[in-house]
Amino acid sequence: MEKAPLPNKVREFSKWYDEVLSKAELIDIRYGVKGFVVYRPNAMIIVKKIYDLFEEELKKKSHKQMLLPLVIPMSNLKREAEHVKGFEDQVFIIERAGGDVLEEKLVLRPTSETAIYPMMSLWIKSYKDLPMKLFQSVAVYRHETKATRPLLRGREFLWIETHNAFATSEEAEAQIKEDLEIAKKVYDELGLAFIVVEREEFDRFPGAERSFAYDALMPNGEVLQIATTHYLGQKFSKPFEVMFMDERGVNRYPYTTCFGIGISRTLAAIIITHGDDYGLVLPFGMAIYDIVIVPILYKGKEKEVIKKARRIEEIVRNAGYSVKLD
C-alpha cells in the first residue's frame, strides 16, 4: 500500500494540521505578526462559501446586513461593566494617529455590542421599529493568548455577528432558538459533528444572561467552539439608553440577543473533520473546484487533446461551474 504523504492525523495531529494548511495552499503563517495569518486564494474560496451559506439563512429569517466601523471609542467599551471586565485585557488599543495623541483611545472591535447599541439608541424609538435584526460579516481582534494556532486560536479571526432587539423577552428567547436552528442546518450541510452546550456562568459571554455554544467534535477527541448565541436581556439596552415607546405610550427598554458565527473556526473544523493522511478533503459544496479536467496526452495528438480540453473547460465554466484544467 502506498505510504501516505502526510503525518498520521491521529498520532501526529499538530504536524498533520500544519502540513495540510501549507500543502493545500490554504494559510500562510509567515506574515511576521504573531496571531495574524494570510488567507490564500484556496482558503478564501471556501471562506466565501461558508459566509454565503450563513448569510443566506440569516436573510431568510429577516436579518439585514450592515457594516460598523472597525474602531470603538474606549468610553463605549466601558459602559457595560461585565462586558469591559471580560474584554479589557484582550483589546488592541489605538492611542495615536500619525504624530498626534488621540483625545480618546480607540479599540479594535473584539465584538460589536458596544458599537451597535449607541446606534440602536438613535434608530429605535417606537415599537414599530422592532424587532430589529442586523448582522455584519467582518474580522474581529482579540489579544487572547500566547499559544496561537492558525484558524483555531488567533488574534484576528473572521466571523459573522448578529445583533437583535425585541419588545419582549419571549421574542428574544425565540431568537436564541432560531439561531441554534440556523447553525444546525449549516453545520449539518458541512458534515460537521457537534454538540450544543449551555455555558456555565463563569464561561458566559461577558454581559450575557444565558449563552449557548456549538462545539464541533474533532477526531482527536477535543472540541472546537464554532458558534455561540447569547440572551442579553436588558443588560446592554439600559446602559446605552436604547428605548422604545410601546403601544400604550410607555417608554421601555428592549430585550437583546447576539449570535457569533466563527468563520475561521468553521473552516478549521471542515479541514480537520474531513481531511485524511493524504491531504485536504472537502464536502462537494465547499470544493475549491467543482470539476478538474485531466487531459490524457497521446503521442502526436498532444495539441489536439489540449485544444479539446480547453474547449470543454470553456463550456463548463460558462455553465457556472468552477473548473481547473490540470
Structure, described:
The chain has 326 residues and is an alpha+beta fold. It folds into two domains: 13-281, BirA Bifunctional Protein, domain 2 (2-Layer Sandwich); 289-325. It has helices at 13-23, 41-60, 74-77, 81-87, 113-123, 169-189, 263-274, 302-318, and strands spanning 27-28, 38-39, 64-65, 71-73, 93-97, 100-108, 132-141, 156-166, 194-198, 210-217, 223-233, 244-245, 251-252, 255-262, 291-293, 323-325. The protein has a seven-stranded mixed sheet. A three-stranded antiparallel sheet has the order 4-6-5. The protein is elongated and about 85 Å long. The mean pLDDT is 94.
Task: Write a brief structural summary.
The protein has 326 residues and is α+β, with helices and mostly antiparallel strands. The protein is built from eight helices and 16 strands.
* General shape: elongated
CATH superfamily grouping of the largest domain: Bira Bifunctional Protein, Domain 2
Number of helices: 8
Sketch the topology as an H/E string, one letter per element: HEEHEEHHEEHEEHEEEEEEHEHE
Whole-number tally of structural domains? 2
Class of secondary structure makeup: alpha+beta
CATH top level label of the largest domain? Alpha Beta
GO cellular component, one term: cytoplasm
Transmembrane segments: 253-272, 278-298
Keywords: Aminoacyl-tRNA synthetase, ATP-binding, Ligase, Membrane, Nucleotide-binding, Protein biosynthesis, Transmembrane, Transmembrane helix
GO biological process, one term: prolyl-tRNA aminoacylation
Q: Which labels suit this protein?
A:
alpha+beta; BirA Bifunctional Protein, domain 2; 2 domains; three-stranded antiparallel sheet; 16 strands
